[in-house]
Every structure is written in C-alpha cells, then in structure tokens.
Design a protein that fits this description.
The complex is a heterodimer of chains A (111) and B (115). Chain A has strands at residues 5-7, 10-13, 19-24, 31-37, 44-50, 53-57, 64-68, 74-78, 87-94, 101-102, 106-110. Chain A is mostly beta strands. The termini of chain A are far apart. In chain B, strands 2, 5, 6, 10, 11 and 12 form a 6-stranded mixed β-sheet that branches. Chain B has 115 residues and is mainly β. The radius of gyration of chain B is 14 Å and the shape is globular. At the A-B interface, strand 4, strand 5 and strand 10 of A face strand 6, strand 10 and strand 11 of B.
C-alpha cells in the first residue's frame, strides 16, 4: 500500500516563474492538505481539498492555488514566485477523522 | 487563534539519557494533540497522538499525556538512542472529525543523541 507520494522531489525555479507540485494521497484517502515548511520552521497550513473543492485556507496569498481531481490526487500551484517561497512543500492526506499521513515533500528553491 | 509553543533546541543528550521536550498549546474547544518526527531529508511521521484530556499517547518508547489543566503535551522517553536524533514537532488539530480540520504546528525541537 503506497503512502502519500509527491513529485517532483526537488526543483529550482527563477523569481517570477510559476510552479506546479503534485500529490497522490494514500489509498482510500479523500482529503488532501498542503503545508509549507520553511527552513528551521514548523509546517504552515496552506489549504485543504475535499470533494474537489477548497474547504479551508490558511494565511497565504492568492498566488497559491490548488486543485483536486476525481481520483483525489491534488496539485499545488504557485504563481509569480518570490525568493521567500523557497521551502519544503508537504502534502498530507486523510479519510474522515482518521490519522493524517504526510508525504516526503517537494523541495522548492527559488533563485 | 490556535498556537503551539515548544521548547527551543537543539537538545543534546547522551545515549540512554532521559528525554523531555516541552509543548504547550492555546486552542478553543477540545483539540486533538500530536507529536510528529522528521528525520533528516524526510517528511513528517506521526509519532503519537491523544484525542482527549488525560489520554496518554505512546509509541516506540515515547509517551505524552494530554493535560488540559496545564494545556500541555510534553514528550518523554526514558532512554534515548542515537537513532532518535531528529526534529520533533508538537501539533494540534482543532477538530478530529469532519473534513475541515487542519494541523497547527510548533516550530520544532531538534534532538541530537551522542554515544
């Protein structure tokens, strides 16, 4: 049983560019959340998707957007990248009130 | 809003020493509490959890008790090993049912265990 899988694992982008990160939830999970973890900090909640709709959003600008597909997989899009967007982006999945599982993350470096 | 405060690291211990990492929280209602561990270069792994007051979560020799009166969830282990070296995050979820819950994390405490 595969856990939460994310791609790509590492990527480098230039300021002003756009990036798309992808996540496949753990089998049987229907709720996907995204978190941003800056170096030396705890993860910060970006948003959560359920039934293909954004259900809750953290304190992130509109440059951060997402999508959930019918198979529950999800994408995180970030437009107009800033140096401060450099971080580890974590995807998490769950089903109902059960335990939240995290993927290994996508390391984004903006130069 | 919800918040989690952890003791600052790094915490450096010798193998077989006793570990305590303090965690306190601020939340409305009755949150669920978690400890996650992050090994170098990896994502987060759930270490243990407690969903109501006075519950004790335990796993791999680690334990933490949900103390509502002191709003605390301190992590303890009686004898640490070198393999326990990692960053430990305390977190809370403002609701454990339904689809709208999210995790609020502390800033993490780095533990380094030496021989």
């Amino acid at each position: 049983d595969a856990g939460v899988t994310q791609s790509p694992t590492h990527l480098i982008k230039t300021r002003g560019q756009q990036v798309t990160l992808r996540c496949s939830p753990k089998s049987g999970h229907d709720t996907v959340s995204w978190y941003q973890q800056a170096l030396g900090q705890g993860p910060q909640f970006i948003f959560q998707y359920y039934e293909e709709e954004e259900r809750q959003r953290g304190n992130f600008p509109d440059r951060f957007s997402g999508h959930q597909y019918p198979n529950y997989s999800s994408e995180l899009n970030v437009n107009a990248l800033l140096l401060g967007d450099s971080a580890l982006y974590l995807c998490a999945s769950r089903r109902g009130g059960n335990t939240i599982y995290f993927g290994e993350g996508s390391w984004l470096t903006v130069v | 809003g919800n918040s989690v405060t952890q003791m600052e690291g790094p915490v450096t211990l010798s193998e077989e020493a006793f570990l305590t990492i303090n965690c306190t929280y601020t939340a409305t209602g009755y949150p669920s509490l978690f400890w996650y561990v992050q090994y170098p270069g990896e994502g987060l792994q759930l270490l243990l959890k407690a969903t109501k007051a006075d519950d004790k979560g335990s796993n791999k020799g680690f334990e933490a008790t949900y103390r509502k009166e002191t709003t605390s969830f301190h992590l303890e282990k009686g004898s640490v090993q070198v393999s326990d070296s990692a960053v430990y995050f305390c977190a809370l979820s403002d609701t454990y049912t339904g689809t709208a819950s999210k995790l609020t994390f502390g800033t993490g405490t780095r533990l380094q265990v030496t021989l």
